[in-house]
Structure formats: C-alpha cells, structure tokens
Amino acid sequence: MRYFQPATLDEALAIRRGNDVVPLAGATDVYPARAGRRAWGDPTHKDVLDLSRIEALRGIEDRGDHVRIGALATWTDLIRADLPPLFDGMKRAAREVGGVQVQNRGTVVGNACTASPAGDGIPNLLALDAAFEIEGPSPRLVPAEAFFTGYRATACGPHDIVAAIRIPKREGRGHFVKLGARRYLVISIAMVAAALETDAAGRIVSARIAVGACSAAAGRLPLLEAALPGAPLTDAPALVEPRHLAHLTPIDDIRASAGYRMAAALALVGDALADLSRPAARVA
Amino acid sequence: MTDPMPGLTGPRARHGSTLGQPLTRRDGVLKVTGAARYAADNHPPGMLYAVLAVSRVARGRVTFLDVEAARAVPGVVEVMTHANAPRLATDPDEKTNPFAFRLNVLQSDRVRFPNQPIAVVIAETLEAATEGAERLAPRFDEEPARAALDDGEVFTPAVVGAGSPADVAHGEVEAGLGAASHRVEATYDTPAQYHNTMETHAVVAAWDGNRLSLDLPSQALAMTQMRLGQLLGIMPGDIHIRSPFLGGGFGSKAGVSGPQLLGIMAARLLGRPVKLVLSREQAFGPVGHRAPTRQTLRLGADGEGRLTALHHHTRTATSSFDDFYEAASGASHSLYASPAIRTSHDAVRLDTGTPTFMRAPGEAPGSLALECAMDEMAEACGMDPLAFRLANYAEVEPMTGRPFSSKALRECYEQGAARFGWAGRPLAPRQMRDEAGLLVGWGMGTATFPALMFQGQARAVIRADGTGLMETGAHDMGQGAWTALAQVAADGLGLPIDAVEFRAGSSDLPDAGIAGGSAHMATAGMAVHEAAAAAIARLADLATGDERSPLFGAGNAGVVARDGRLVRRDDESRHESYADILARAGVAEIEGRGRAARDPAAGADYAMHAHGAVFAEVKVDPELGQIRATRLVGAFAVGRVINPRLVQSQLYGGMIWGLSFALHEKAVVDRRSGRVMNANLGEYHVPVNADVPPMEAILVEEHDPYVNALGIKGVGEIGITGSAGAIANAVRHATGTRVRSFPIGLADLLA
C-alpha cells in the first residue's frame, strides 16, 4: 500500500489522476471500512491519498449568500461554528455521528463522499439544497440531488476531489432525527432531516424533507414537500401519509427489516415536524 | 522480578481491620495515568512484530499463500505457515485435560473455522508485518459451512459446562406436568456472543535458550504455564509469565489461545522477541465465545401457584473439533422448589472456533430463559411475579434435598422490592405510561450463581522492620484483586495496609488458582488468610516461648495481631512489636505458607450458592419500539464482603452485562459463509455509559460459616443472572409482547 500526503490541492489532483487512490480526510470511514474488509477475508487496501495537510481545504466560512464547508472541516468544527437556525439539523447530526473522538476527526465532506445509505450528514445536505464543489479535469458545482447517484456512489469521478460543500443561506429552521438500536454510538436504522420556513402566522412557506437509511441513497419527499406549504406548522405532523414515502425502497439488513424501516421512517417524519412546531429551545 | 506496580501509593493508613472497608483501587492512579503496563505495552530490545493472516472460509484447506510477495515487503523477516511452523512437543489437538482446548497453530493446512490463523508475518515494524499479511492472497479449497443450530446432527454430549452430566432428573416430570392446573411451554433463543475484552489477546515472547519469558494476560497463570510447558517441551518452571493487569478476561483468558502460542512459536523460530496482538475482528473466532442456545422450558403449576414440574432443555453448539457445551439448563437445578425437575442438554457441531467459559457460563442464558418462563407461569396463574417466586422458594436444594450453607434470598427480595417500589405494580401488562407517552414496564428476576472455590496458595513474610510481604499469583482483571487481596493480607498480618507489600500477577509466585467461576476472592483470599495466620503463629511461638518477652507464657491464653504488635488476648497491657520479637530472636524474617481449598465435608453436606433479586424498569416507544432500561435495582446476598466499593462495582458490571444480554449483544452469523457479520464494536453492541440506566446494588447481610473461613461466596458473575430476565420481563410488562429471541430489538415490539 502506498500513502500520499500532498500539501496542495493541485498536487493532490495530480496524484489522483495518476493513481488508483482512496481519498482520506479524517479516516473515520476509511479505517473501519478496511477493518471490515479484513474481517471479510480481504486484508488488501487501496493506496491512500491523505488530504489532511492541504490547509486550503480547512474551515467553515460564511460567504454572504452561502456557507462553505471545506473538505477537511470536521463535525466538531460544524458544532462550534456560528450558524443560523437553518443549520440546526446539520448540527444535531454532527452530535450524533459516533462519539466525540469521531466527531473530532470525521469530516462532513468525507461522510458525503462515502455515500453510505446511513450517512448521517446526507439527508441534511439534501434538505439544505447543498452543492458540491468538485475539482478535477472539469471543475463544476453539483447539486446534492445529482451528487448522490446510488449506493455508495456519487458524481465525484475517479480523478476528482470534492473541495467543499456550499449551503445556501435561507430563512427557516432545520431539524434532524435519527433512530438506531440504541441512543448514541450507533449506525442509523432510519433518519429524517427537514428544513422548514414559516411565515409570521406560523404557516409553512416551504418545506424540504429528506429520509436516509431507507433506500440505496437518501432521498427527498417531494409529495410531502408539495403538500405542506400553506398549512399551519402545528398541523404538519398529521399531514404525513404513507404515500409520501412510498417511493422509498428500504432493505432488510442486520440492523432492521425493511418493513420496520418504513414504519419507523413514517413515524420519524411526523416526529421531526412535531419537534419543529415547538419553540426553538426545545429542539436545539 | 520487576515491581509490577512501581510508584504505587496506597490509600491512607487505617487502624483496625481493613476487611469490609470500601478502599479505592490501589492500582487506580496507575490506570488513569496510563502507567499500568499491559502485555502489549512491553517492547524488549530487538523485538519483532507479528501479524496474523486469518481464514475467510469456515471449513476447508489452504491451497495457496503468496509467501514470496509477503517476504518481498521491506522489513518482513519471516512468514510462518503450516509449511515451516515449528512442530510442538505435544500435539495441540491432544486433550491432556478437559480444559486444555485444542489449538489451531499452523500444524496443518486444515481450516476449521473463520478467522482461524493461516499464517503469521513477522517484521521489524508493525506496518511491514501488516503489509506482508495483506499480500499473502490466500486461496482455499472450500467446503460448505455449518453455521446455525439447525445445520448439524444433534447428539447428547457426555458432560456439559465444567463437567456436569448433560441430563439430570429428580422426580417424575411428565407426571407433574400431567397433574398441573397450569402449563407453560416456551422456547427461548440466545445468540452467539463474543467476550470482547477491551484488551484484545496479546503476547510478548522472549526466549533465552530453553527459558521463556512472557508478557501475556492470564486468568490462570499456573495452568497456562503447565500447558505451555507441555506444548513447547520445556519445564513449566522455565516459563515466566507476567500478567499484572488484564483489560478484561471474562473467561477468554483462562488458557493460552492459539494466536498467543503462535507468537511464542514465532519468537522461537527467529530467536528474537516477538509481539503479537489480535485485532478486534480477529478476536471473533480463535479466543472463544459463548455458543448460541435454544432453550425449551416446560413448567407445570397447581391451583395455588406451586410448581409441579420443571423441565429445562438446552440445545447448544460446539466446534467441529473440540468440546465445550453451554450448560444453560443448570440454572434450574437449585433455584425453585419443585417435586420434579429435569435439566437436559443436546448439541450440534458447527464450523466455529470452540466456545468456552464466558460471563456466568450456563447461568447467564439459563437464568434468562428460566426467569422468563417463571414470569410466563406467574401470568398463567394470575399471580404477581414476586409472589409467585416466593410461593416456590426453595428452602433446601430441590434436586438433592441438601440444606443451603446460607441463603438470604428472601431478604434480597424484600430489600430489593422495597427500594424499587415494586408494590402496587399492575398485574396486567401495558398499563403504565410516563408523561411523554412512553410505555413503562416493571420486571424482576432471581439471581443465582454457585459459590465455588478452587485450590490456591500464598506465602507471607514478616520482616525485621515489622513490615509484611504477601505473595500469591493472583490475577487482577479489573475486578480489584490488587486491592481486596491486600486487605485480606493486611488483616491477617495485623498490619496497616501500607505496611504490607503485596505481590501478584506473576507466575513465579505461589499458584493462586484460576480467576474464574467467581471463585478468585474465596480461593486466593483464603490462601492469603492462611499464609498470614501461619506467619503470625510462628511469630507468636517466638514471643511466647521466650522468657524475655512480655508475652512469655501466653501460649494458652493466646495473642492477637494488631497494628504490628502481638497483644496478649486476656491482658492488653502486655504486647510486643513484630520488629522487637524478630530482633531479639535474631531472625531476619519469618515466613508462613497458606493453602486454600473447600472443606470437602462441608462441600458434600451443603449446597453453596450466592443469591440475589433484580428489579428493572424499562420504557418503550409505542411507535418505534425503542427500548430504554431506565432503572435497575439489585439486592445480593453474597456472603462476606471484603470491599463493598469493589463488590458493588462488580455487581454493577454484572447487571450491565445482563442489560447487554437482554437488549444489545449478538453476533450475527452469515448462514452461507459462517462468518460473523458484525465483528467490530461499531456493530457488535456492548453497552456504553449512555446505555446504562441509574443502578443500585444493595448488599444484603449474610454470614456463611461453611463456604470458607472468611465466608466469601464470590461476586464476579452473579450480577448478569437475574438482570437479563428482569429486563425481558419488564419489556413484556410494558408492551404486552413476549419476545423469546434475544437480544430484544426494536422491530420485535411492533406488530
């Protein structure tokens, strides 16, 4: 196994072009994935492109109309960043990714690039209409819905590196609920991220809601999003119907059955909306 | 020998006996500062690193290993495979005693379970050894895996557990069932579980000619030394094992494991010290586990709620090549009165590593099934679960009629129920909710574990300066042996605890017996007690026989040892310090040796068990099925308590493992390949602090004159029993759903 540790993004891109490498930021996915493969009888490891020395990829920045999360920004960086209520769900997810040690090392961008169906950041990025800054042979900005293309698959090509995620700043509040086999330190069975804007009268202006761990890739709930605007927020939980989730395709795995996941996702969407209808202090 | 606990600062000196005092751990500062040296922390000069390559198939043969590719990695020194591994003096498949488990140490190309070692790569650095192991690219001639309880041919083993008969009956079970007013028949499934000690198995081995020096975590120093001597063809006395601290053992470090022996073999092959440490995922196979069980209980009860019959049958599994059978039915031997009891076992052979003793072997799964079945019968009889258990209280051991050496279980029920607030519990399930709308349930279970004792030895010395030394090869697995045994030593020697140097955790000390079966405190504690008494007796002889001593002639009246002095029993004004007695006699030091063993007559005449009662509260989300244990109260009668702080800690630990058994722990086995699919702590859940509810462990007063002179019954394992059943019963009470497959998961509670 070879281990590359460049100091600039240009060098990193050159290495990426010339070698079959797995990019590494915090190593909190790369390391257990390797242990998992070894447990399954495959001890081999792809060469590693360690991005952690590239200073330009650090930090979370307010750029006026959007917040830019660099590829090396950790969950802890996110928790500590001064961000508007729209990011409350993202912050909740950050607090539920593993323990503090993992939050200190794991990165938001890395979580997205691993593209696990159970990645805790992903439903939030979908609900927040995030966009991915991809550097490589053809630099481009890819919306989250186009970035997550399937099970552990993304629009980031073999010669590309995601340099940052941009999240547009809007009105409204975000929220996130996660269900696992225990309270903390657990991989999600189902999770829901929501970003809601309400008017002065408490009516929903816009709603963006995404469900994770219930299909090969996390996905939004367009039918529900279309049904909610105009309704009082307090009525929202009662408006959730099974048909709003009918396009999800959960699977049976060692953590839960498909049937349970579907029922749980339905309950969690209601819970998320109910939480949002309470004063902010209750859900922060 | 180097001091295993350098710089140890003990607690404040206390006057009077230290027995019963809640001293904090004497090794606590070393642990929290990182100064405590565990096996893998050792790096002798010239040491090499060994990394295992393991099998991905469950059964078959290794047909190819790319040894050349591994050797080509810079830093790799050697690749040990079945082709070049040293042969052993004794075949590791030879069963030299029932607890000498067969070891898979590259003596052939045969693969008998997933994660079996198939090669060891030894290198100058850990990285090079790891890289070398990656490049071996093994190929296998694979045979189908037998992975589940239904995959094998069923047979009845000769013995189960530590040598109990597989099938025992007392009275007429079928007649008792036939005559019963209420009958319950239910089957409970428990999964394979892996010990998952925080410290994975490790060894640092260094040879000097035919002498072997080892850093190796061990629950059984003398037994391990003996076994290694046989396998390696050297004298056991030429093997020195240092094991000052274990990061958990739970039964898996009672013998030498195959991987550890491979590290020792590699060191011999290369003539240099070698370190080998298992990765977490490699520990799912070659170092033991608890086998799955399927337990069927058939109970009959009369119109008054008294048992008329109890049949507890267990199906379990062992490996294809060795024998260990989880004796789960044994839990029904001694707990509840019934005119007819039968406990039986059968088994299948699977392509797994050999199961072994793990956290209350037998009792843990057995108690879970029994306590659930008792609750099911209480419900059938329309009785409160506690009232039903009291109606079936065993005044004597039910299958033998022997009296109990002591049994304060009634007091455990009373004190536990009072503290928990059991009175007023609605009989019917699904009656209670909290303010957030969560379902609330209360359940209980009876805890029980045999009060065992092995054979052990210790050596005590009183030195010229009046201080003491106590030596015994005891094992601190985190339970607090360093502290509690030092308390017994100080008490026996009549010295403040800081005036006694206590040595343990090394194989060159007297054999303290194994740290297992919850018997270490009774065994090593009694050896220490006897050694101290022998030393004091010799000191008393010196003083009372010397006319220059103020104690001259006190032979009949006797003396007591207190604060470094011998004091005449009938005249406390006459006393003399240890230092003065030795100085006048011109003796540099005196020694006493102690041996401990159960009094065979008492062991034959009395049934000896610790008991307890555990009460649990759970809350369940009615829509998601999420379960949280919210309260656990246990009351335990465990005989004499040497250190209540450490005993409570042991009981809390046991109760947490009970919670783990009921709600968390499970090895998920892939039916096709036989591999464990969640061989990591991310997905094999053991409880973390956030999973642990507020807990109380009440120590119920109990004096037992028969178990041993100190009255110690042991506390290592009883906490897990009763607790798992209490939580399962609380889930039933909360939801109305009886789940009989463990651990109970969220989806089990949604219709």
TrEMBL record, chain A:
InterPro entries: CO_DH_flav_C, CO_DH_flav_C_dom_sf, Diverse_Substr_Oxidored, FAD-bd_PCMH, FAD-bd_PCMH-like_sf, FAD-bd_PCMH_sub2, Mopterin_DH_FAD-bd. Keywords: FAD, Flavoprotein, Oxidoreductase. Residues 1-172 form the FAD-binding PCMH-type domain. The keyword Cell membrane does not apply. Pfam families: CO_deh_flav_C, FAD_binding_5. Gene3D superfamilies: 3.30.465.10, CO dehydrogenase flavoprotein, C-terminal domain. The keyword Oxidoreductase applies. GO terms for molecular function: FAD binding; oxidoreductase activity. This is FAD-binding molybdopterin dehydrogenase. It comes from Salinarimonas soli. The lineage of its organism: Bacteria, Pseudomonadati, Pseudomonadota, Alphaproteobacteria, Hyphomicrobiales.
TrEMBL record, chain B:
Residues 33-144 form the Aldehyde oxidase/xanthine dehydrogenase a/b hammerhead domain. GO terms for molecular function: iron ion binding; oxidoreductase activity. Residues 1-25 are annotated as: Disordered. Gene3D superfamilies: Aldehyde oxidase/xanthine dehydrogenase, a/b hammerhead, Aldehyde oxidase/xanthine dehydrogenase, molybdopterin binding domain. Pfam families: Ald_Xan_dh_C, MoCoBD_1, MoCoBD_2. It comes from the Bacteria. This is Xanthine dehydrogenase family protein molybdopterin-binding subunit.
